[in-house]
Design goal:
This protein is α/β, with parallel strands linked by helices. The protein has nine helices and eight strands. An eight-stranded parallel sheet has the order 7-6-5-4-3-2-1-8. Helix 4 links the parallel strand 3 and strand 4. The longest helix is centred in the last third of the chain and has 22 residues. It binds pyridoxal-5'-phosphate (PLP). Pyridoxal-5'-phosphate binds next to strand 8 and helix 9.
Length: 237
């Protein structure tokens, strides 16, 4: 087995273990492989090991890989900050966009999603730790943003995504993840419908996956744990 296949086995075991500890079905947690900075060959190895969902942060880098791997049935997630002048390419190439944090971007993605494709599956990114340097809308603004997005065609609103402030204490990690879970539960009570199933809680990365699963994550985004350390960043951000 390849190194990547071995790492995926380990990550899957960690997911299963965390799910059992939480009394949850491991099948209810989707594994998204975050492949930023890693080459198409590594993605193909992860695909051969059974993964189908892959996440990219940088549009230019992603475009090349998506074209190179178009023979595979990959479900691509855009998870990086979005410049509003780049939405057309995102709307054309990706299946999911997890990093919507303002209406302008949502509206453009809706208008630019090609008619022949299924709706774009989207999550609203929440700045759950209220870090000034981080993207994501403020927790108190999520409801209004969702309300504004509900009528937009071409989008299916799946839930919330967050990248909490880095922290080593699992109990503290879990508190933050529970806050996001509560926020989604609240939105679901008020707004769930066919175009907004609100069934996705995208939280947990290599360093805080167990705490996220304990707090109800349905989608963990794992980069380092699958592909190893990120290769030399070739990007400004
Ligand atoms: C890079 C990244 C990840 C993966 O982080 P790791 O710590 O390498 O697992 C997850 N989510 C987002 C939004 C990222 O940018």
């Amino acid at each position: 087995m390849s190194n990547i296949a071995n790492k995926i086995t380990t990550v899957r075991q960690q997911i299963t273990q965390a799910a059992h500890l939480a009394g949850r079905d491991p099948e209810s947690i989707r594994l998204l492989a975050v492949s930023k900075t890693h080459p198409a060959e590594d993605i193909e190895q992860a695909y051969q090991a059974g993964l189908r969902h892959f996440g990219e942060n940088y549009l230019q880098e992603a475009e090349g890989k998506i074209h190179a791997l178009s023979h595979l049935a990959i479900i691509w997630h855009f998870i990086g900050p979005i410049q509003s002048n780049k939405t057309r390419v995102i709307a054309e190439l990706f299946d999911w966009v997890q990093s919507i944090d303002r209406f302008k971007v949502a509206k453009r993605l809706s208008e630019q999603r090609p008619q022949h494709l299924p709706p774009l599956q989207v999550c609203l990114q929440v700045n759950i730790s209220r870090e000034t340097s981080k993207s994501g809308c403020q927790p108190e603004d999520v409801d209004a943003l969702l309300q504004q997005m509900l009528p937009l065609p071409g989008l299916c609103i799946r839930g919330l995504m967050a990248i909490p402030k880095a922290c080593d204490d699992p109990a503290e990690q879990q508190q933050v993840f529970l806050a996001l879970n509560n926020l989604l539960a609240d939105l679901r009570n008020r707004h769930a419908c066919t175009t907004a199933p609100l069934d996705t809680l995208s939280m947990g990365m290599s360093a805080d996956m167990p705490a996220a699963i304990q707090a109800g994550s349905t989608l963990v985004r794992v980069g380092t744990g699958i592909f190893g350390p990120r290769l030399t960043p070739s990007h400004p951000s």
